[in-house]
Design brief:
The chain is built from 15 helices and 20 strands. By secondary structure, it is of the alpha/beta class. The protein has two domains: 99 residues, Roll (Urease, subunit C, domain 1); 331 residues, TIM Barrel (Alpha-Beta Barrel). Strands 1, 2, 3, 4, 5, 17, 18, 19 and 20 form a nine-stranded mixed β-sheet that branches. An eight-stranded parallel β-sheet has the order 6-7-8-9-10-11-12-16, with helices on both faces. The chain has a three-stranded antiparallel β-sheet with strand order 13-15-14, with no helix packed on it. Strand 1 and strand 2 form a beta hairpin. Helix 4 packs across helix 5. The protein starts with a helix and ends in a 16-residue tail after the last strand. Bound molecules: zinc ion (ZN). Zinc ion binds next to loops.
Amino acid sequence: MKKILLLILVSTCLTAVGQVAEYDIVLKNGRVMDPETGLDAVRNVGILGNRIMEISASPLSGKEVIDVSNLVVSPGFIDPHVHGMTNKEHEYQAHDGVTTALELEGGIEDIGTWFASQRNKTIINYGASACHPWARAELMYETAQSKGNKDLERGSNKFNYLPVSPKEMQGTLDLLDKELKSGALGIGVPIGYYPGATREEVYNVYEFAAARKTMIFTHVREGKALAIQQAIADAATTGAALHIVHLNSMSLDEIGLTLRMIANGQKQGLDITTELYPYTAGSTSLESAIFDDGWQQRLGITYNDLQWVETGERLTAETFASYRKKGGIVILHTMRPEWIESGIKSPITMIGSDGMPYSRLAHPRTAGTYARVLGVYVRERKTLSLMDALRKMTIMPAQRLETISPIMSRKGRLQVGADADITIFDPNTIIDKANFEDGLKFSEGIQHVLVNGVFVVKSGKTIGNVFPGQPIYGKHKQ
Ligand SMILES: [Zn+2]
């Protein structure tokens, strides 16, 4: 409390009287890029505590002065789509320039307990949505228990194939409300994984989100543009804010059409956004509904397009059957480079990695998403400008989320008063190193990463035993 008062005093003094005598950290002579204001110039940045306090063409003095000449000084990257939420994955994310990791697609179960478990133990900022599939399964489990039905275990996949009763529906909304009050960032509705939910159940959740003025994050049902039309219709008629995750794998060959739908919807005033990751393959659990009968037709692939993460092997009809029974993560090579190119080029898409839980051969998006956009799509292929790319990974997710999370108005910006979440990289060498054959590797070219004014990566090396990550709470947090 005293520290914040001091910061306000100094900032008031700063604006009133000019430079602070000495900053904690000065980033000297870097190419400062701020997508919101368009600033792109060589400047010195003064950091005090967890805040950016000055950006100046004149020299600044600091307890620690880091020369970042010829490097880009960018707001830290905000990833709205992460499944790997432990420090094991956060270390890879930090080396990819990510300072805020959010599990918005699937959400986190019992979020209050989770937030408590992460406090002061996390490398980067963290948050999550309320998990709809978990909430509905909890209510159905309670019903099963009350009827002495022992077949249905807590969290069973069977619940994903069952509809809720009216009583369970109300209980689900009450539980989602409790999760919002525990700090959840909107509601995760990965409906593609629980086909048992009826259109009415999903519509009720959209209506609830609209009433609570919060946001829906959705992995839509199977069906490409048709499924996306369903989600847009639900949002448009309820007034719920909607974010469609990984548009690339949801749309496949219909991505041209779905990009137009969302862009036109925005022009019509609909509160809809979307994101994608820069890879031609997806990843998910082989035992999930994604691989229910008809998957080859739906996805336009066959066994050999599936890669088993545990070993890296491609599947056959036999191994598909045995591994699906066993359960586990698979990489599915379903997309074409030109689909990704058109998605990245579009001004309406943000970047979301869909990063997976750690395993040696996990999908490379877990470690290389941001460096890949900046190295391959900006520098090598010139698909988009550096500033446009940074916009997709900083201010766009920040502005999208600040309507449901006040702290996001201080994120995604390299401006005075913003949180000192900063990513410093070499635009001439930045590149992803993780790939489908060799698995996860730290990206290269990302020199320094600060989270709330604390270095978590310095000169390309991990700084151990620092946990400056702060919780990103939703506005309903009590
Ligand atoms: Zn998904």
